[in-house]
Amino acid sequence: MAYQGIKNKLKSRPLRIIYIFYWFLLAYIVAALVFWFIALNIQNEEIYSYKMRMIEVNDLDFQRESQQLKEEKDRKTTQYIGEGATFLLLIVAGAVFVFRIIKKQLVLSKQQQNFMMAITHELKTPIAVTKLNLETMQIRKLDHDQQQKLIRSTIQESNRLNALCNNMLLLSQIDTGGYIFTNEKIDLGALATDCAEDFLARFSSRRIEVSTEDEIFINGDKLLLQLAINNLLDNAIKYSPKDTLVLLRVFYDHKKIHFQVIDEGQGVPEKEQDKIFEKYFRGAQMQTKGTGLGLYLTREIVRQHNGNISLTDNKPHGCIFEMQFKNSKFFNH
């Protein structure tokens, strides 16, 4: 823990230096602008005084000329104030804009760094487990039950690896606009049942139930919708106790299709609920395996199907992730 604290301090030191330099530079520019205004105003006063001394007091046009000089001085003062205020507003607006961009890039860079660490762990774990299981079956003579247990474990890790690769590939294709969407008629209840059965085969000790109305169809991309459901199911299983129920509900209400994944886990703090669907975001309580891509991709998939996704609390414990589809029409690409 002490080493991690020192490491974090070393990482934050360059950022602190950047911020100090940035605000120092901004303060210097603003100070230069203020000094510029003061210097011009003093110069304006000196010119006015000099011209006033050049006018003969007994001159018949003294009153008129002095009034003209005063008006000229006031115009210059107003001009300097207007120009200074405009420059100041532009400098402040530009500084805030640049600061937000820099801060956003720094946050994104940190998120990407954390993502690379998480993705490395996520890739190494199933590979290591698969290799160990295969080496065990190769070296040792195991009975049938032991072999089947190792095979199931290997298949489970392979499925994890496949899901991770699918998420990464889909993320890249969606971000670059390279994914070709299909449009087919899908029985959403049957798809939910298939996904639940697949997870029950991988997590036989878990309780996963499906409650669906008959003949709820949607036009869309089956692979994407299956991936969205799997991401929500995987998320519910990760963050809920093993002896609790994970429920999938599919129903039609108020001309909308509702798809709910309900768990009885620890839930998501209210301050993090608006960020939970952001790319790479991982909340403070998310200490289990993951990359921060699943919910982001799920949101993008739902949006592509003319729907929206929301998170609400499942009283007294847990979360309700709900996908709503306004109609069965799918975007044409």
Characterization of this structure:
The chain is an alpha+beta fold and 333 residues long. Helix content is 62%, strand content 13%. The strands form 2 sheets. A 5-stranded mixed β-sheet has the order 2-4-5-7-6, covered by helices on one side. Strand 4 and strand 5 form a beta hairpin. The two termini are 50 Å apart.
Radius of gyration: 33 Å
Helical segment count: 6
The share of residues in helices is 55-70%
How many β strands by DSSP? 7
Uncertain regions: pLDDT < 50 for 5+ in a row?
1-10, 329-333
Strand content of the residues, in percent? Answer: 5-15%
Globally, the shape reads elongated
Mean of residue pLDDT values: 80
Largest sheet geometry:
5 strands, mixed
Order of helices and strands: HHHEHEEHEEHEE
Give the helix/strand class: alpha+beta
> Strands of the largest sheet, in order across it?
2-4-5-7-6
Name the quaternary structure.
single chain
Distance separating the two termini:
50 Å
